[in-house]
Design a protein that fits this description.
transcription; DNA-binding HxlR family transcriptional regulator; about 10% strand; 3-stranded antiparallel beta sheet; Arc Repressor Mutant, subunit A; HTH_HxlR; DNA-binding; mainly alpha; transcription regulation
């Protein structure tokens, strides 16, 4: 049996990711910056579940969005690392979009937001 003169110590794990309200507010601002835009969440819901969709499919799935706006939103999400753009070099060009692993990890958080929104009290309940 061997002995060591030094005890091995581990650093305590941090309890809070955001220990102060200002740190939490800064985190929320970063998240909102990434998800801001009228169409980003709609696009995300169409890509959840590992779906790979062509640009034209997304256009058909979201008929109210203009082509220009769809391009802008997809480019921003690609820059932020949420969406992956796959270009197939052929004639005519084929471009597909899917979520990155990080983008797919957003699914449970958005599901929780939908559950929260569905539990909103009715207008009659809020009037005292």
């Amino acid at each position: 049996m061997t002995r060591t003169d030094e005890k091995v110590r581990y650093l305590p794990k941090s309890k809070d990711l955001y220990p102060t309200p200002s740190a939490g507010a800064a985190g929320v601002e970063n998240v909102l910056r990434i998800l801001e835009g009228r169409w980003k969440l709609v696009i995300l819901f169409h890509l959840f579940g590992g779906q790979v969709k062509r640009f034209s499919e997304l256009e058909r799935d979201i008929p109210a969005i203009s082509q220009k706006m769809l391009i802008q939103q997809l480019r921003q999400m690609e820059t932020d690392g949420i969406v992956r753009r796959i270009v197939h070099h052929q004639v005519p060009p084929k471009v597909e979009y899917c979520l990155t692993d990080w983008g797919q990890a957003l699914c449970p958080a958005l599901d929780a937001l939908l559950t929260w929104a569905a539990a909103r009290p009715g207008e009659a309940d809020t009037i005292a």
